[in-house]
Amino acid sequence: MHIHYIQHAPFEGLGFIEEWLQHKGHTVSSTQVWESQDFPSLNSIDGLILMGGPMSVNDEHHLAWLSTEKKFLTDCIDAGKNILGICLGAQLIASCLGAPISKSTFTEIGWFDITIESSLGRWMNAPAPHKLKVFHWHGETFEIPEDAILHASSDGCSNQLFTYGENIAGLQFHPEMTTRDIATMFEFGEDEIVEGRYIQQVNEITQIPGNYEACHAFLSAILQKLF
């Protein structure tokens, strides 16, 4: 398959997803929106991955490329492309499916559990854990689009993972992270780490044994389903 991904910030790349795509032998292309707003033709790609970013889905008034990306994403949805969105990417999918995006009650930054419904295992055609400690970094949240299914939640954010049909998944959290990715996030976003109920401090995050292997296994099952 040929997979295109959209990167919204230099410090939020594919992470583990890059390794998975290479292992599967997929070809990959990308759009880095801070350099170019050119998106591929629909018939040139088989799947689409939308990564995170510090901006809001609602920032179209000062980020003109957001309107262009939303139009491209809507076209991909209408064409039945297989699509994965992570954090901002999931919010973009939800928005294009008609769901509002708003400030979350709590900002989540750090390693926190999500509770996963058995419905996700049925969607993935693979076992899914009931609880999983994953990395979060978000201050906004999506509502669940009409006809989509909510599969996961956390204490700090009730909407953590949804699917739409058999070919679209949106994840609020970051299972793609590696130790290097989290270090890069600190470098560019440490000013966001303030006191908060669901905000861990840098030393706390770095001292928690990262649940990378379990997160990557979980993400692999979703990637296998979609791509």
UniProtKB/TrEMBL annotation:
Keyword presence, Isomerase: no
Gene3D superfamilies: 3.40.50.880
Biological classification of the source: Bacteria, Pseudomonadati, Bacteroidota, Chitinophagia, Chitinophagales
Family annotation (Pfam families): GATase
UniProt domain Glutamine amidotransferase: residue ranges: 30-181
Matches recorded under PROSITE patterns: GATASE_TYPE_1
Name this polypeptide is given: Type 1 glutamine amidotransferase
Superkingdom to which the source organism belongs: Bacteria
Keyword terms of this UniProt record: Glutamine amidotransferase
InterPro entries: ChyE-like (IPR044992), Class_I_gatase-like (IPR029062), GATASE (IPR017926)
PANTHER family the record matches: GLUTAMINE AMIDOTRANSFERASE YLR126C-RELATED
